[in-house]
Design brief:
This is Bypass of forespore C C-terminal domain-containing protein. InterPro entries: BofC_C, BofC_C_sf. This protein is of the alpha+beta class and 190 residues long. It contains eight helices and eight strands. It folds into two domains: 91 residues, Bypass-of-forespore C, C-terminal domain (Alpha-Beta Plaits); 69 residues, Roll (Ubiquitin-like (UB roll)). It is elongated, with a radius of gyration of 21 Å. The chain starts with a helix and ends in a 6-residue tail after the last helix.
């Protein structure tokens, strides 16, 4: 039994390390280029910032593939905000009303919290889903697609299925993409 549990992660890793289908690679490319497109600056944001002397609350929001983090910088004057945006050209500003400014950054990675607690498995509706913690806790973060369970069960070894149903621990963006691409072969059409 001990030997089997040591063997299982290697077997699952081999299943997950196959080359992703072209459709998944293409989708990931478009998601990444769209997230990094600097041409989406809002000219209205710059006009409004130019009219402002000081912002009562500035928040920096880091949006990840999985998860979000925010930190409050407090009151800043316009020069300080311009300096921040010059130091961080990937940040996009947005006024949120009542003296609040949000500086958004899109990061093509998992948040530190997701790296600590994320799992992929099957949700109660038969979808490939990302969970906050083990799937048994039923805290779905994101749902990807419906799985053809009978096709998956007839194709994958029993150990790999057990590991999948128990939850595949996701600790970085490569594992995230690998599991997505592996199970996309079993996505239901329609």
């Amino acid at each position: 039994m001990v030997w089997g549990s040591m063997y299982l992660p290697d077997k699952v890793q081999r299943l997950l390390s196959t080359k992703p289908p072209v459709a998944i690679e293409t989708l990931q490319y478009y998601q990444q280029t769209e997230a990094m497109d600097d041409s989406k600056d809002d000219p209205n944001f710059w006009k409004e910032l130019n009219k402002t002397k000081q912002v009562d609350e500035v928040i920096v929001r880091h949006s990840y593939v999985c998860g979000e983090e925010e930190r409050t910088l407090g009151k800043l004057n316009t020069d300080e905000i311009y300096n921040l945006l010059n130091e961080h050209p990937s940040w996009k500003g947005q006024f949120a009303g009542q003296g609040k400014l949000v500086l958004n950054e899109t990061i093509l990675d998992l948040s530190p919290t997701c790296k600590e607690r994320a799992y992929m498995s099957l949700d109660k509706d038969g979808n490939l889903s990302l969970f906050d913690g083990p799937p048994q806790q039923d805290k779905v973060i994101k749902t990807f697609f419906q799985l053809d369970i009978s096709s998956m069960e007839s194709s994958l070894p029993d150990e790999a299925l057990r590991h999948f149903y128990d939850g595949i621990r996701i600790q970085d963006i490569d594992e995230y993409n690998s599991v997505l691409s592996t199970f996309s072969d079993y996505a239901r059409e329609g």
